[in-house]
């Protein structure tokens, strides 16, 4: 969730995640890429290693309070 590493999950993380999606996955790496792969964390799916629009939707739902993110 915290893809920019500032210690909180907020709208800035949505912007960073969207930028990564637009770049074809070239902006995030390491722990930030892992943090952005929200759908895989929430579904315990180790085969999902890509950040996509589903991850963006999970982050939006979390910020709206309708979904919890597993850490």
Would you mind describing this structure in some detail?
- The protein has 71 residues and is mainly alpha-helical.
- The protein is 52% helix and 0% strand.
- The chain contains four helices and no strands.
- Helix 1 (11-22) packs antiparallel against helix 4.
- The longest helix is centred in the N-terminal third of the chain and has 12 residues, at 11-22.
- The protein is globular and about 30 Å long.
- The mean pLDDT is 88.
Q: In brief, what are we looking at here?
A:
The chain has 71 residues and is mainly α. The chain is built from four helices and no strands.
Give the percentage of residues in beta strands.
under 5%
Termini, distance in Å? 9 Å
Pick out the low-confidence regions. Answer: none
Q: What is the CA-atom radius of gyration, in angstroms?
A: 11 Å
Number of helices: 4
Shape field: globular
Q: Mean of the pLDDT scores? A: 88
Q: Helical amount among residues, as a percent range?
A: 40-55%
Could you give a short account of the major beta sheet? Answer: none
């Amino acid at each position: 969730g915290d893809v920019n590493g500032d210690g909180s999950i907020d709208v800035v993380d949505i912007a960073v995640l969207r930028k990564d999606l637009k770049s074809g996955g070239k902006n995030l790496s390491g722990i930030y890429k892992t943090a952005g792969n929200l759908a895989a964390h929430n579904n315990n799916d180790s085969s999902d290693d890509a950040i996509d629009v589903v991850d963006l939707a999970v982050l939006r739902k979390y910020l709206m309070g309708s979904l919890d993110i597993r850490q």
